[in-house]
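Subject: mismatched residue count in predicted assembly?

I count 525 residues in my input, but I want to confirm that the predicted structure covers every chain. Input:
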Amino acid sequence: MDLITPQFGLVFWTAITFLVLLFILRKFAWKPILGAVEEREDGIKNALASAEKARKEMENLHADNERILKEARAERETMLKEARDIKAKMIADAKDEAQAQASKMIEQAQTAIESEKKSAMAELKNHVAGLSLDIAEKVVRQELSNKDKQLELVESMLGEAKLN
Amino acid sequence: MTLNTFKSVLFSALFLAISFAGYATEDSDNKDDKEFNAKEMILHHVKDAHEFHIIDINDKPISIPLPIILWTDNGLTTFMSSAFHHDDSGKTIVEKNGGKFVKFHEKIYQLDTNASTVVFDEAHHPTNAHKPLDFSITRNVFMMWVSVIVLLFIFFATARRYKKSEDNVPTGIAGFIEPLVIFVRDEIGKPMIGEHKYKRYMPYLLTIFFFIWINNIFGLIPILNGANLSGNIAFTCTLAVFTFIITTFSGNKNYWKHIFWMPGVPVPMKIFLMPIEIIGMFVKPISLMIRLFANITAGHVIILALMSLIFVFKSVAIAPVSVAFSLFITVIEIIVTAIQAYIFTILSALYFGMATEEEHH
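Triage response: the counts match. Full output below for your records.
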């Protein structure tokens, strides 16, 4: 039955036509079409990869920022603490110094007062000595006239002098 | 494939029916030439022809003449098929290039030197003529070239779209063609052959897929009736041979080892499997050839047989039934055009994949 017997002519033309079609399409159709599709797929793949990379970088950046912020906060905290300590220390130091200064001044003042007192006493003694001499002179002078009177005078003078 | 089995059964049943009907009407044929012969009509449409017959108006055939190219003892002989004046019974003799030619049942015979009319024996074989090599542009060859022009037009237009665009975004026809190309690549090439080797075979797979598909579709267009290229065994045979050649030449060590000395089985089994595997090598392309031929031819036969019912019963009342059924089959056939192209391509890819598969343990 010639329905299932291949005719030579058609085999011949099919083979030639198919080969020609295959070569033409391979060069002018499949190459550009598949090339373009692959190029685009690569492009999409690369774009996705770089987006992912950018996201990771952003994450890293974010983490870095967080870390830096944390560090800064900690630093501020320590700085504040140090400042507070320094302040307290300064106040304490100042207090101590003032105390020392004050006590020193008081001491000096006391010494000065003491010396003043001494000098005043010395002066007073001199004065008393002078007065005594004066009195003695007067007494001596009056003694010459009245012995009783002289004694009385000395007595009174001494009484006065005691008050001083 | 349940569809295939279903169709094979239908095909065989119909063929048997047609054959019986043909034999039954054989006697009455001689009495009345006008009697409608479904078998003849169907075979005429399914088989190849030397002219592109379109329609008969008032018993006058209207057809496109096609060139007849013969390789005879006197060299190349060419003339137009119109020289036979639509005669297919071997009565009209064309004298050309020192030879006398007749056309009988769409075959060209060259008369022996001293014969003046062709004489046929009982089995319709001419006794005083022989067949020269026939390279004629038959209607199948003609339609094949039309399909090639259409394919080139479609894919050149697609390729141009990509060349023009800067960013390779598919626009226009490329948007329609690209999914198909990607389908062949991602659903046929990559899974069947493998990620690393599929690229070499892509041009072949794509070409064969679209070539078969478009010719399947052309076969369904009624006005191109009988341009049943993909239902012609010569066509499917040629394509199957290409698949066979590519499979054989891309076979690696592992492939041949599996054929001649199956690894992993005992020696007696190896010897037993060798002839089976060798037969298998040839059965694969033969199955490709028969599958495509039988499916497409079966579809045509069913549609034509359903249409013939109107003329067999000589009743218009049967027409709605015929038309409804043949419409139903035509819709199935439209799906089958794509399915058969897909099956031919995926099986070819599968064979290439088997031939190039690396040894794995």
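Chain A has one domain: 8-163. Marking this ticket as 'not a bug'.
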